[in-house]
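Notes from hallway chat w/ T.B., transcribed later so I don't forget. T.B. wanted the structure written out for a chain they're using in a teaching module, and asked if we could keep both sequence and structure tokens in one place. Agreed to drop them here.
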Amino acid sequence: MTADELYQQAFRAEIAALKPASLCDVGCGAGTLLAHAQSLGIAATGIEPDAARAAQANGLDIRAGTAEALPFPDGAFDLVTFENSLHHATGIGRALAEAMRVARRAVVIVDPWFDLSIPSQKVGDRFERWLKALDRMTGMVHWDPIAAGEIAAACNGSATTIRHLLQLTPMSSEAFEYFAGRAQPHKDSPVYKANGMDQELSAIRAAFQSTGITEAGALLVTVLK
């Protein structure tokens, strides 16, 4: 089982254990979680900012909208979920407040996380932050890894369960250079140069060659209302 499969399985098990009758998946993408929920008899609705993707939904209830302004009344769903989407919210605090408003019972979140006590994870975290800074330069909303305490504080729930999941998966040299190559179109950008992006990448490459990089683990948070 790959790391991503392990994290997805744990996330879905967390949802199933709560036995919801309904859920809203925020940032649902193509609706993979919605289809899984429907197979379990859960009424599932997705929110996706890409209106074109929402319009092309095949047999799934996907609606165009944003995490910061969910188009539903208070307590509309048993659960509100974020599957690797919270770090794409424009305002994380506002998105979590909206999720708590719309959820009757709980908010369940899985998002990338690194164990900074492990050298290869520390380098992975540094490379992740470099990649996300590059994405933000191009206008993408892509925040650095979110701390569990930040989520718990923003949700202000009555009970919060936090799990850190990690299956160490080394990143290959080919994968590293592939991701690093995303910088090529931006090397002449004044912002790229001003932020010392090339120097940081050189330092990360040296650390990668010395220590290696292991890919992100997962932060799994359940906030009960």
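Follow-up for T.B.: Residues 175 and 181 are 10 Å apart (CA to CA). Might be a good example for the class.
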